[in-house]
Amino acid sequence: MAEVVSFRMDGSDRGEGPVLMERRDGALRLTLNSPPTNSLSIAVMEQLHAGLRLAEEDASIRLVVIASTGKVFSAGHDLKELTAHRSDDDGGRAFYERSMRLCADLMLAITRLPKPVIAEVDGLATAAGCQLVASCDLAICTDTATFCTPGVNIGLFCSTPMVALSRATHRKQAMEMLLTGETIDASTAKEFGLVNRIVPKQYLDQVIAKYASVIAAKSPLTLTIGKEAFYHQIELPVSEAYDYAIRVMVENMMAKDAKEGIGAFLEKRHPVWTGE
Is the pTM of this model over 0.85? Predict the structure, then answer.
């Protein structure tokens, strides 16, 4: 039986709030809970940041799943919140800078978290919501999920979502989404490289649980080393990437978990990880 503990970011155990947290067999689920849009308001982004910090600090948490309630995974930035600040003395510039910076820092925090992050997408992921999916290490969606970067339709090019999108998909496919603003279906998103797998809605929890179980069974040190190395090397020229990867591989070989894992493989037994 899976251990499930639900709580709010403020520490209470009430099942409400813009972001719900739930521990389940080594995974921390962060669920966007502001339907119908699940927008990335300042409050929501701050709570997601807090959840990622908890995941980083708590050794019992092996990975993070970002999910949502309702029919929309996330509609991105809260346009009503942004528009309300047009009446500020500076026309809203300081608030817009704060909101965009907080969002960018959130996406970077996902990438830099020394634990895997999986997007569980059931519904529409649009603009910064699509950026959130693109920023996660893995993305599993239902066969009815849809994705778009529609800023161009309202005179606001999705420049910050573009950063994650262009790194998750091929350039021309990213530009297609950014220039047209049109919605793509799950199959197209998989073809573009935005998601890993498409599953029927009724099997989404089961598939996510399987991924979580498989990942949680690995050496936490190895996952940390590997995730950091992946995002570092991908920005390097290929020869520099190999030089860097060689250094990482040698250091990884010196770790106790590598010694244990190789020994267990040769001895045909299950490894016992210490995270060292």
Answer: yes
